[in-house]
Amino acid sequence: MWIPTEHEKYGVVLVSFRGTVQHGLPLEIGDTVQILEKCEGWFRGFILKNPNIKGIFPSSYIHLKNAHVKNKGQFETVIPVEDSVITEMTSTLRDWGAMWKQLYVKNEGDLFHRLWHVMNEILDLRRQVLVGHLTHDRMRDVKQHITARLDWGNEQLCLDLVPRREFSMVDPDEISVTELYRLMEHRHRKKETSAPASTHHLFVHVKSLMSTNLGEELEVFFHIYDGRENRPLSERFFVKLNKSGLPKSPEKTERQCTLFVDLGSSDLRKDVYIVVHIIRIGRMGAGEKKNLCSVQYRRPFGCAVVSIADLLTADSKDDHLLKVYACNTESEWYQIHENIIKKANSRYNLSGSNTGLAVALQLLHGDIEQLRREYMVLFTRGVSITRKLGFSDVIMPGEMRNDLYITLEKGEFEKGGKSVARNVEITVYVLDIDGQILKSHVAAGSGEPGGDEYHSLVLYHNNSPRWAEQIKLPIPVDMFRGSHVRFEFRHCSTKDKGEKKLFGYSFVPLMQEDGRTLPDGTHELIIHKCEENTSLADCSRYLKQPFTKANLPSNNQTLKGTKESFWITSFLCSTKLTQNGDMLDLLKWRAHPERINDSLSKLKEIDGSEIVKFLQDTLDTLFGILDESSQRYGLKVFDSLVHIINLLQDSKFQHFKPVMDTYIESHFAGALSYRDLIKVLKWYVDRIVDAEHQDHIQQVLKASEYIFKYIIQSRRLFSLATGGQNEEEFRVCIHELFMSIRFFLSQENKSTSPVAQTQAVFLRTFPAVYGELLKIFTVREVAGFVRETLGTLPTAVHADCLEAVKLQCIAKTVESQLYINPESRCILLPVVLRILQAHMQEQRDLVMCARILTSMLSLIKKEENGTVEPVVSEEVELIVESLLGVLLRTILEISNRPQPAGPAMRLQFQDVTGEFVACLLALLRQMSDRHYQQLLQAFNSKDNLRDFLLQIFTVFRILIRPEMFPKDWTVMRLVTNNVIITTVLYLSDALRKNFLNDKFDYKVWDSYFYLSVIFINQPCLQLESFSPSKRKKILEKYGDMRVMMGCEIFSMWQNLGEHKLNFIPAMIGPFLEVTLVPQPDLRNVMIPIFHDMMDWEQRRSGNFKQVEAKLIDKLDSLMSEGKGDETYRELFNSILLKKIERETWRESGISLIATVTRLMERLLDYRDCMKLGEVDGKKIGCTVSLLNFYKTELNKEEMYIRYIHKLYDLHLKAQNYTEASYTLLLYDELLEWSDRPLREFLNYPMQSEWQRKEYLHLTIVQNFDRGKCWENGIILCRELADQYESYYDYRNLSKMRMMEASLYDKIMDQQRLEPEFFRVGFYGKKFPFFLRNKEFVCRGHDYERLEAFQQRMLNEFPHAIAMQHVNQPDQTIYQADAQYLQIYAVTPIPESQDVLQRDGVPDNIKSFYKFNHIWRFRYDRPFHKGTKDKENEFKSLWVERTTLTLVQSLPGISRWFEVEKRELVEVSPLENAIEVIENKNLQLRTLITQCQSRQMQNINPLTMCLNGVIDAAVNGGLARYQEAFFVKDYIMNHPEDGEKIGRLRELMFEQAHILEYGLAVHEKFVPQDMRPLHKKLVDQFHLMKSSLGIQEFPAYVRASPVHFTNGSPRTCRNSVPNIISPDGGRGVARRSLPSYPAVNRYSSSSLSSQASNEVSNITGQSESSDEVFNMQPSPSTSSLSSNHSASPNVTSSAPSSARGSPQMAEKHKHSRENACLSPRERPVSAIFPNPLDPAQRAPSHQIGDTTLPRSDPNLSAPDKVRPTPSSWSLDSVKEGPPSFSDSFGKLLCPPVPPRPPYSGSSAKNMRSQSPVTSRSPQKTTVPPFTPSPTECQSTSLVSNSPVLSGSYSSGISSLSRCSVSEASGTELPAGDHPSHPLPPPTTLPNSVSSSSDEPIRRENKTPPPYSVYERNNPRRPVPLPHSLSIPPQTDPPALPPKPHQLRTGSMKLDGTSDPRVPRPRPLPRKVSQL
Length: 1970
Hints:
Helix content is 41%, strand content 13%. By secondary structure, it is an alpha+beta fold. The strands form 10 sheets. Strands 1, 2, 3, 4, 5 and 6 form a 6-stranded antiparallel β-sheet that branches. The chain has a 6-stranded antiparallel β-barrel with strand order 34-35-40-39-38-37. A 5-stranded mixed β-sheet has the order 18-21-11-15-22, with no helix packed on it. It starts with a strand and ends in a 23-residue tail after the last helix.
């Protein structure tokens, strides 16, 4: 049976458990579990990190831990009872673990490894803490180390700052907000700046001396030297080295290592040095023989110097190699270091090139005790301490030191009868009072133990030696009296045995008779001469003699006159001995009572360090004097006491305050002193107001704290001694003293007056007295003293300094023990609040006000159960009443102030803001219902309440700002938000009660809503972004505050009623932002508000357009910021649709919701695509989708333009320059050439519309140039040139014409790559909306073939599956939760056939028209229908042709466009054969032309082509066609194919004729080595002819020989036109299936046996041939003759006549009016066809039908020309129903360089769509003749229209497509006769008609260089760039420009557009702002 557990509540998993049993809970090692129930060895519970899943697990797998249970029962929480540091470590390490792995993924290797080490270190320390074997101190150190590491890791990982107290995490609910703020700020400051250490220490470790000339032992002395003052700062550190230069005692590290301690910050200067002196011990001369002398001398060796400042940069214990220098002369030895520092090079040199001293030097910072902890190894291993000379900057009490330093300076000696100077050595001894040598009390320095004697250096032959050697005499204090130092002088002979001969001595006593020690300074000692063997054992003999020349008696001339002297410098550093006589006199006052007055006066002159040495003795002396002679010396003693107390205020001696405190507590015995002290103090206070000089009084008041301490302690001692006598008298005295104080404080004075300054001095020290008074008086009494004293302060104080001091006094009062007591607090609070309020209202001393308020509020706490004590409640009430309003105003004032510039000021500024905010939060958190009620009732008017609410809402908005607290202060932010939401819930009631209905106040409500919205949106409440553990903690403590606030918003909104209209549409954006927060509950609460808004807006306006507009505007900006998701879209849709079900306006509501939902789809796609790492193609596609949506569905011009520029930037980044140009063109089209001003927008400055359009034009031209789309650039150049010309801006006009010319040059000179096109299908639900289940055609990159494109697409969509077939997918693929890609290559179908069919147009020009402005693409798939004939496959070889029509032409604003329509047709075997031969004929003709015009460098392509065709034909290629289609069976079975069979036969003959001519050309150019091949080709050609049954060519072929004679078709000029009879032309009506022209890229035979790899090449197979046929598309499907020009002056720009029934004639008429319109007049931006009648719209040029633009011999001549029948002619009007009649288009002519006009030619009203070169039929009739199939330009010679008349063409088409004369022009199918006459010529504008002799200049135009076809699409018009259209009337560049007036005339023609044609909806003209 399962029993709820009592004690087993919490445990850790020891062994992993799989949970395979029923209800088993899987567990991992280390998981923590909470246990709910137990049953027979099993527990039931859950893992703490996932509390939702509960299950059972074995109890033996769990290690139980003690835990504390909160809220016992169903919702209990368990907190483990363990050290809080352990708990924090565990949770932090878990959080770090996940983030640590992410660091590896993000490739942040450095932090990854550092964090790994820190985590291991923390785990190690955690083990130590858990084991529990650490000492208390060690545990503290370990915890400190752990918390430092945790903080470091949190900071590195950008986690939250953890507030701690004593290493433990603090629960923010258990401390006041002000205290929390202080803790956070303390940790933040600590993190920001670590306080610089005031004390520093230098660690020195001597390694070795490296030198080539060693061999003697060395002594090395280090000391720190002040180069500025030329004196040593420290004693010496002494190291002995052996003969190898290594330390003598390597095992004793203290002999090699030292710490120079107590260096002040001022000592770390550039001119403070480490000086090293090296002494060798050995022979006198370094080069003497070893056996000469056994005596050892100390001789100079070298010196090294290094600056301490150089070590500041070296953090680690770097090894330094110091250069060692030797002096040039030994007499300079004493100052060698100074010379090195001064760089006096002449006085020293390097002692050897290889000599160097290796030492480790390291500067350590901080207190010595701290160093002992941090560098434990250093101190345990052993290190000697080298002290400073003198005391450190701060003298510590208890420091024991008694060191006498003597420096052997110099000596003056006589020669002593010798011819050379002496070698003098000094031996130093210390002797005690008995004359015994003190053992081990002479030290050369630290590092080595002291010795009995010291031997100085020996300077060679020097009678005035200067040693400058410092020795230390650490003599105990008790031995100082009577001791003396003796110096013995010996001459060291270098001859004989090298003996040292004594010749004199000096001595100096260490203490004088009066007890003073040897004074510091230089002493000149007398050298007493003596014999060599004199014994100095009996010192009493010489001690009676004088020792220094300074105190010689005047009568002792013998000693005074001697020249011999010895100088020493002494320096005493002692904490016990003094050299000051005045000090000794005072301490011995009883011995000399008469000197007391004098001694007390001189006390002020004694050095402070002397006084603190003898502090206790001095104080005893003073109180002793006071007790004995209080009347006489009371005032003097009081002044002396004041002097000593104030001395301890000095920073150098402040550490002696505890010494004085200890003295007062333990040693002070003046039980009667209090009376005298009170009396003197009152005497001083009473004289303050009248005294002129306040300095002394101020000194007295400064010492008042300690004076009171002495008074109180004295009174306590007296009470103890007497049993409490005279208590009343004492109280009266104190009361009188305070009355005096209050009187002097109440004086009003100017700030400069001395009294005001004295008041300030007293206020500074007054709070320190409270604690002393409490020792005797009750809390209430002391509080009364303080209240009355502070209450007497004048309110209107003029002294600013006094105001600040007054606040400081209040601050100290609030922080004192007195205020902490609730009893005294209620007495002091009114005074404190009064002063505080006055200051805050005037905004003065805010830093101090914040400090006071913080201290006050940190004392107020709610009890555990949340109740408030009555006393505390009253305090809160008082504070709220006094300070809440002023506190809010202060925060507002500070926040609105500009922040000060200086960093220190800014820091202070932020501090004070944070402090006040913390105070406000603390106060609000303490307020209960009663406090809020009282607060709101206290407002006497609505206006006051309104102001308060506005104020508090504004402050709350400030508190929510991200910059309010540092980013890692999440704890503080959550507390802030909790307080805000609690307060808002209280205040919302006041809002409802007081500001609704007739009292409605928009401003308050708006402020409320605005606050609520930014509250919900603040980052620190977005729990989704936090780790699971952090989210869980927040939810447990505070819940989801966003949902609470959301419910409150909804509730308040519902209360508004009709006032809701005030917030529509203003609040739509903010509320939308709230609903985008990814919190389901919040969304469910808030989304219905939109329904409410729609409803109220419907009531008001009858629609909700405002709501719609605002929703759409805000959605874009919010979603681009990363807000919103797919779930939101679905929720928004479902909730609102459900809400509006029953509304009357349901339909329009559904429409709005659908629009917004669709916009969300696109915005989400856009945001996903814009993520870092996404490929450009996806980004561009998505942007295009969104851009079109804004334009077509939402009509949002500004958003549309913004996305145009985003798309433009994407294209530029991807180097899609052509697409970038088309994109920018969309914006360009929205602008006009006007002078309207446009505002600044995006990156455009404020400028006129004309200027912006000019700038856009230039940018677009530049990009077209970069994208090699020069033809498009030319049109824009022309438009700009027109503008410049109209303004007579010839400078820019010239530049523009030059630019245009350069573009023409580039067309002719530069190579353009031909792109591939690919069809891509995106199938499956996993694709974004803009791609899902759609197919596109994509323009490939340069050199990109199918395989590369497929790979690129798979890289862009890595999860996609490539489909391996080309069939359309079924529904399962469409609906699949996957991504499928279907990719194959497609062939473009060019729209512009005219240019492609012209002979002589260079390929550079043609290539543009083949691959630009393509709407349609095709894909051919060969298949066999019926049974396959193995003998001849062509009989059953059909082609399935798929035609794809796009929504926009390529290239355009994207590299890919969606397929709008797909058509499937089947091409019969016969039609297939016709196409194959046509294509091959075209290829042959092209190659022959190129060869003739010498365009071909190599004849091989022609050779291969001829060989392929002839070889295939001989081997049965064409014969296969004959077998298949020319047999009787086929003709009988397919009577309808008669015409097509005729056409096929015609093409075969045509091919034979071309081959014959080609062979002739080939013979002319073939190289010698290929002659045999040529001969073979000729032979095979004859075989081919015979196989075709051709003996000679038919008449129509012979009649017109091929005009290739002059090498180029363009050189043949026919003055007499050839008019082709229909009988002689191709009269075959084509099949209904379309044939498509396209580029022929591959060279192959006309009949290929091989299928091409490319999907677009469809092949058939032949058993007998290599290349039977090739299905490559060709630029034209015309016959051979259609590609040659009869005259260079004659060009064809006509689309082919539509071959159809006569009834279609009217339908096929075309109007060219729109081609002539100005860009603005044209619908949208396309050149829109504007026929005279909608019913007359002709079908498109039926691209893909045989009616493609081509020269066609099947044309009817004018009426008077009668056609002659031909045997090959079939009636062209019998068949050919129009295919694709639903799609139509017009051509706009692009520029083709004009040809020179024929002189004398003129044109009369001609409306032909094709250029006519025939004479007018009225003048002449030319008899018909039968042309050859290769005859040039059959179509060009005859007008399409049977009613046209005209004169000879001048060589330029008299009616170009854009010419104005075409306003009424019509186009008829060939052979069709109109059923009614055309409108008469009079309908033409006058400006166009002219006399027959008047030449009319017209540009010869060809189809446009980019797509300007407007299609009849009922769904939506496709916007096309009108600004690239040709201006209405442009002149050939060869002629001078027309004046502007003429151009305006031509613009009038714009009015001829048919108003009946529906125009697409243009965008509203808001462009003026953009």
